[in-house]
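Entry 14. Ran structure prediction on the chain below.
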Amino acid sequence: MSRGLAGCLAGLALAACATTSPPAPPAHPGGAPLVGPEWRLEDLLGGGIIDDSHVTLTLAADGTGAGTGGCNRYFTTWKTKGDRLTMGKGGSTLMACAPALMNQEGKYLRALETAKSYSFAPDGALVIETAQGPLKFRKS
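Output, structure tokens:
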């Protein structure tokens, strides 16, 4: 066998054994991924949130999302394309809480279902733009 052919075959054998890594989850310049951490809501549609209410969002790599709306646990689906973000129609548990908390939770869940895009603020906050306005989250 000629040296050229042997070199080609060796190169093909090495290329066949090479593995490729899956793409990394979307991240902002500071490196905090969109997928994985628990994000805690700090601003709802530009109006703040009720003190000590615990509203969260966690996005999994399999396209599912979950969190707490301040009273109830909820679940949803999500997908991105570039900076575009869409959320599926979600579901939640049906516990009752104080009327103000239930009102805030309803506004949050309705807004989340209309997500259009996401970005990261210079301070690392996750901002999800919705049809009703922005949802601003901080990594827990």
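The chain has one domain: 3-139. Will compare against last week's run tomorrow.
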